[in-house]
Amino acid sequence: MRVTESQLQSLALRSLSDNRVRLLDAQEEAMTGRRIDSPSDDPTASARARLLGALQTESEGYLSNVEYGELRLQQAEIALSEGTSILVRVKELALAMANETMNAQQRAGTATEVDELRRSLVDLAGTKQGDEFVFANVNSTSAPVDSNGNFTYDVDTFFDVRAVEIGPSARGEISASGAHAFAQRAANPNSVDVFQVLADLSTALNANDPAAIRTEIDNIDQAHNQVVAERSKVGIRLNRLSIARDSAIQARDLYVQLESDLVDADASEAFTKLTLADTALQASIAVASRLQGTTLLNAL
Amino acid sequence: MTVGLVSLLQTGKSSLLSHQSGISTASQNLANVNTEGFSKRDAMFQADGRYNGLSNVEVRRRRAMFVGVNILAQESRKAGAEAKMTALASLDRVYADGDGSLGDRLDKFFDTIRTLETSPTDGDLRTNMVAQAQALVDKIKATSTEIETQRIQSDQTLEDAVARVNAITANIAALNEQISKIKGAGDDAYEAMDRRDNLVRELSTFIDITTFEGDDSQITVLFNGAQPLVENHVSARLEATLDPNYGNLRRIDLVHDSGVRHDITLEMEGGTIGGIIELRDDTLPTLLDQLDNFAFDLATNFNAAHSAGFGLDGVSGRDFFGAPTGVAGAAATLSLVADLDNNTGWIAASTSAVDAVGGNGNLAVLLGLEDQALAGSNTRTFREEIANAMSSVGRLVQANNVVATESASELQQLNAIRESATGVSIDEEMLDLTRYQRGYQAGAKIIETTEMMYDIILSL
Fold first, then answer.
1. Least CB-packed of A15, A108, B270, B320 within 10 Å?
2. End-to-end C-alpha distance for chain A, whole angstroms
3. Which of A99, A96, A100 is nearest to A88 (CA)?
4. Residue B422: pLDDT band by 50, 70, 90 thresholds?
């Protein structure tokens, strides 16, 4: 085969430009720390990275929903726990006043305290988180109970609590049911209207009627049970959110890891590539510079 | 046999002249060592019976015919791939993942729905959802615009390409004529042939051509194997005309010398023009169609679920996205329902009028769309569709780069083979030069000796 000048020339040119391209790629990878910048760098991997990115965003979304739900449930938990204490106190008062030795004046005085406690309970039912009522059912912008202790909505229809997405096709409840905690519902024949019980007790106290007071004691027990039952449900919901939080965090970290495996350059590999590309370019420069020197011209 | 002194002088003279011609050929070769497309000339010496000397030296131009055909094909391939490169690289960037990418916008949009579930009455969250929806709409429109812009821009370059093709074919025809004249006068037309070869090679970077050399060294250039672009001294022209049948982009006609025209737009395969037409009529429309389908599916499915729900005011049946009129152009015309940003209460969060305020049942339904296979003819989820579009753009770019590098290295090899056959080697020419110089000296010696012989005879 004949070797001509322009062959040598174009060989040198091509090896130089190829090595320049390789060096540029290696530099870019080492500087950005990313193996994939655009889909063409690796079509399959970049599509997979995209899906992993979507799953990350989704997990972050679950996490923020869980955090919001936890705040709200903690508010409900505090309110229900105070409600329990109130009902315990009411029961103590009722037991004491059911005693035949108490006189009308003492009972009337206790009635004032019971009224006060009832108002506190009404306030608790109106607990808000931000602008929303924790115990409200659907319409969280209006109070579930008015200042007289009457429910503002139909407790037999609206008793579910708000659920939000907290995991892949998993929904978790993030508020407490005022209907279950405080109301008398047709579906549960034993349930009592907690505010009504306290109002009845107050009436009985004012009427100085020990028999009527004794009847209310059972109702107070039931009211106490109702509030405690909802509180334990809140506990269960919090528990569920906490599990959802753990799995969302795990999922997110896993997706971050997987995406990074696909997209990010391995530092040591990137620098090895860079060194190799640099060496190759230096070699072709050295060769190219020697090419020009050797012809018969120099000898003749 | 007796030889006269005069004849000896003739032998010496023919040697001098022939070697002078050899030196001239070697010098010409050396002078053109860096000339693109120059084919090495060989000085062919032949013994001359009459004076036992050398006849006139024949100078031949080296050829590598077979390689030439493959070179033209690879030039076409390479130019076709390079013509698509800019547009594809820009789409590669547009579809790249990252903050604000199509996929990111889609994720964030659905994420705002997920957040709105916690407080469906919260005005800020509602505004946020509308804002993210607007950002998604803007991104889809921008992507569609980018594809369309690349189509129009690449189409505009056809004008220049066609003008250059016409200049080249006219030149080739003129050179054909020149060559036949020069040859008719008995001279060699190697210069013109080199020039013509270069032009043919350049022409193949624009369109897919085949050539053959007929009698009288006339080159015929055929487009698509059958339609003559250059035949003897006559060249056909290409014309680019805006045509509604091609979406108001350019139609390419082949106009024969006789005035007969012929639409060859769809016959274009290789070269810059073929590459651009493929990009414009095939590659980009496919991407645009995918995006249009995505926008259409997103808007219609989302609207269907949205209009089944109830806004804060208890009203149902409202769209969220402006209802697309059809798949074609769905991406470019995608919008949100007018005035939605001022009426975020329209977002249908609940499933019934009773729980219109505070209900979040319909948000769950809308959120469910994220995981349903509603895009790509109900084969992929929306996010999978975007990932799919990304990988197809990536593959397009990759495949095109492969063609470009492959044809470049193929060309490199073919050039090497061609160069090896027809190129100039300084070493070789230096040796020839020395050889001819020696021959010239020898020729001079013959004359000197003959002169001496004359002197001897004359002094008798």
1. A108
2. 23
3. A96
4. confident
Question: Does residue A174 sit at the B interface (CB-CB below 8 Å)?
Answer: yes
* Contact between residue B264 and residue B254 where contact means Cβ atoms under 8 Å apart: yes
Question: For the stretch B135-174, what's the b/e string if a residue is b when 16 or more beta carbons lie within 10 angstroms of its beta carbon?
Answer: bbbebbbebbebbbebbeebbebbeebbebbbebbbbbbb
Question: Taking the C-alpha atoms of B15, B18, B23 and B28 in order, what is their torsion angle to the nearest 10 degrees?
Answer: 180
Distance in Å, alpha carbon of B212 to nearest chain A alpha carbon: 26
Selected from 1.20.1270.360, 1.20.1330.10, 3.40.50.880, 3.20.20.240, the CATH number assigned to the domain covering A50-259 reads 1.20.1330.10
* Strand B249-255, strand B261-263: pairing: antiparallel
Residues B418/B69, Cβ–Cβ less than 8 Å: no
Whether the predicted pLDDT of B54 surpasses 80? no
* CA–CA distance, A234 with B459 (Å, rounded to integer): 142
Q: Select from A70, A165, A263, A298 the residue whose CB has the most chain B CBs within 10 Å, as the one to mutate to test that interface.
A: A165
To the nearest whole Å, the CA of A118 is away from the closest chain B CA by 27
Please tell me the distance from the alpha carbon of residue A230 to that of residue A236, in angstroms, as a whole number: 10
| Pairing state between β B47-48 and B209-213 | unpaired
Report the distance separating Cα B155 and Cα B143, nearest Å.
18
φ/ψ (deg, to 5) at B210: -125, 150
Smallest CA-to-CA distance from B241 within B261, B270, B269 is with B261
pLDDT score, position B344:
93
Please name the helix (run of DSSP H) or strand (run of DSSP E) that holds residue A265, with its range, or none. Answer: none
Instruction: Give the whole-angstrom CA distance, residue B204 versus residue A282.
Output: 36
Average pLDDT rounded to a whole number, residues B130-136 = 96
Q: Which residues contact A273 (CB under 8 A, 6 or more apart)?
A: A26, A29, A30
Check if the beta carbon of residue B226 is closer than 8 Å to that of residue B254. Answer: no
* Residues forming a β-bridge with B253: B239, B263
Structure tokens at A274: 């860079």
The residues near B100 (Cβ < 8 Å, ≥ 6 apart) are: B139
CB B78 within 8 A of CB B272: no
Q: Is the pLDDT of residue B186 over 90?
A: no
A263: nearest CA partner in chain B: B97
The model's confidence at residue B171, banded by pLDDT at 50, 70 and 90, is very high
Distance CA A92, CA A88 (A): 6
| Pairwise CB contact (< 8 Å): B391 & A43 | yes
Q: Pick B394's closest partner by Cβ from A7, A40, A168.
A: A40
Question: Cβ contacts (< 8 Å) between B114 and chain A: which residues?
Answer: 58, 61-62, 65, 164-165
Instruction: Say if CB B78 and CB B69 are below 8 A apart.
Output: no
pTM, entire model: 0.86
At A53, list the tokens: 């990115």
User: CA-CA distances (angstroms) from residue A132 to A182, B322, B429?
Assistant: 18, 32, 95
Give the ipTM: 0.87
Yes or no, beta carbons of B358 and A158 under 8 Å apart: no
CA distance B170 to B163: 11
- Subunit contact A50:B419, Cβ cutoff 8 A: no
Give which of A1, A3, A5 to mutate to test B binding, by max B Cβ within 10 Å: A5
List Cα–Cα distances, A87 to A17, A223, A227, in angstroms.
85, 8, 9
Q: Which among B118, B371, B395 has CB closest to A174?
A: B118
Q: Are A66 and A245 in contact (CB under 8 A)?
A: yes
Domain limits, chain A: 5-33+265-299, 50-259
B330 sits in the region (left: phi over 0; alpha: psi -120 to 50; else beta) called alpha
Query: Nearest Cα to A145, choosing from A129, A164, A128, A162?
Result: A128
- What does the alpha-carbon distance between residue A163 and residue A241 come to, in Å, rounded to a whole number? 11
